[in-house]
Design brief:
- By secondary structure, the chain is mainly alpha-helical.
- The chain is built from 4 helices and no strands.
- The protein is globular.
Length: 80
């Protein structure tokens, strides 16, 4: 249930966050490699993506999948 995802994110549930990071970060690395970003540069963009996400967490309402929402932020970071 997506509302459960939102609740766990807002509560900063450590176990849930560890699962999310291990699931989504490799995907973001693949997306970034397709845009020519590798290694430390890719890690920096991923860090900025998560930082932006948690700074603006109230905007995530669970209407889209978490991965989709994060990749949207990631692509905006690439454009910057």
């Amino acid at each position: 249930v997506e509302s459960d995802v939102v609740t766990k994110l807002k509560n900063r549930d450590p176990q849930f966050l560890a699962e999310v990071f291990s699931d989504i970060n490799p995907y973001m690395i693949r997306v970034l490699s397709g845009h020519g970003f590798y290694g430390e540069q890719a890690e920096d963009i991923i860090h900025q993506t998560w930082e932006t996400f948690f700074t603006n967490l109230e905007k995530f309402e669970g209407r889209s999948q978490l991965k989709t929402f994060l990749v949207g932020i990631l692509i905006n970071k690439v454009r910057e």
